[in-house]
């Protein structure tokens, strides 16, 4: 990918909501890119925060930022109980050398317990699409994308398979701690 930092470069992923208000910021590191897009990593103990909440990562994770700009794929390493967490998004792209995006509420999750694969936060999606006035064509597109991603995660097709993410988790583990 053009104009990307060198692998190992610390970054902050900045999420916002549709109205421009701040959402999550995530401390991460650039790992590199492959045919699926750009990969970022987060080590245990690194911060993710949003207004009113701070979380420290309890396991390593990698995030794929695909060129489509309509979602991100987060894959957690052990001991996390959620393996896959996809944020449906809008306008995910690089700005001023760091990734940013608009969180669009719907998520696709693959939990390692009886919940399995499911679409999460439909209640938040329903509330926010009215509150923020999401365009109807965007609503239709993201609802269809959520169903498509749920099927692809269930089938574990690349990059939603374990092997793809495990390669990037190994790259994250190989970096010197900061």
Number of helices: 3
Total domain units = 1
CATH topology, by name, is FomD barrel-like fold
Helix fraction bin? 10-25%
For the CA atoms, what is the radius of gyration? 16 Å
The order of strands across the largest sheet is: 1-2-3-6-7-8-9
Give the mean pLDDT.
95
Look at the helices and sheets and give the structural class.
alpha+beta
CATH architecture group name: Beta Barrel
Q: What can you see in these coordinates?
A:
By secondary structure, the chain is an alpha+beta fold. It has a single domain (10-169), classed as Beta Barrel (FomD barrel-like fold), CATH 2.40.380. It is built from 3 helices and 10 strands. It has helices spanning 122-131, 136-155, 162-174, and strands spanning 10-16, 22-34, 37-42, 47-50, 53-56, 61-65, 71-76, 82-95, 98-111, 117-120. The protein has a 7-stranded mixed β-barrel with strand order 1-2-3-6-7-8-9. A hairpin with a 5-residue loop joins strand 7 and strand 8 (82-95). The mean pLDDT is 95.
Walk me through the topology.
Layout: E1 10-16, E2 22-34, E3 37-42, E4 47-50, E5 53-56, E6 61-65, E7 71-76, E8 82-95, E9 98-111, E10 117-120, H1 122-131, H2 136-155, H3 162-174
